[in-house]
Amino acid sequence: MAKKKQESARGKRYSSAERVKILTFVDKYNATNGRGGAAAASRKYDVSQLTIGNWLRAAGSPSPKRKKTNVDIDKTLKRLSELHKLMAKTEEALDKQRKEYAGLKMAL
After folding, report:
1. 64 and 34 in contact (C-beta within 8 Å)?
2. Mean pLDDT in each 10-residue stretch from start to end of the chain (108 residues)?
3. How far is CA 75 from the centre of its chain?
4. What is the rounded distance in angstroms from the CA atom of residue 74 to the CA atom of residue 72?
5. How many whole angstroms from its chain centre is CA 86?
6. Where are the chain's structural domains?
């Protein structure tokens, strides 16, 4: 009876054919979508993402590449800063106009 408890505590074992099937699915999914294959395989085959990740590392599979953007970060940050300053000035002017409006309304 103690032997049965030990066997059940070890978890499920997957055959080489099952691993290949799941890893092939992951590779195809990543090729199509860029990433997310391990999560999709986890849902489809009811295998933990950790297990799939371990299989991928053991197989020497590269991690999926993130989509590269052609955004110039320095240029974008500079423009964000400019817009922030412009919005602050606009809000300041709007606050003055609101105060003037409220004062005129109270005078009526």
Report:
1. yes
2. 56 87 89 88 92 86 63 85 94 96 93
3. 24
4. 6
5. 32
6. 14-66, 69-108
Structure confidence at residue 9 (pLDDT): 66
One-character DSSP codes across 12-66 = ----HHHHHHHHHHHHHHHHHHSS-HHHHHHHHHT--HHHHHHHHHHHTPPPPPP
**Structure token digits, residue 81:** 């800063």
Greatest extent of the chain over all pairs of C-alpha atoms, in Å: 92
What phi-psi label fits residue 64: left (phi over 0), alpha (psi between -120 and 50 degrees) or beta?
beta
40: number of Cβ within 10 Å: 18
| pLDDT at residue 91, rounded to an integer | 95
Alpha carbons 41 and 25: distance in angstroms, whole number: 7
Amino acid at 93: A
In the chain, the amino acid numbered 9 is A
- Supply the pTM of this predicted model: 0.50
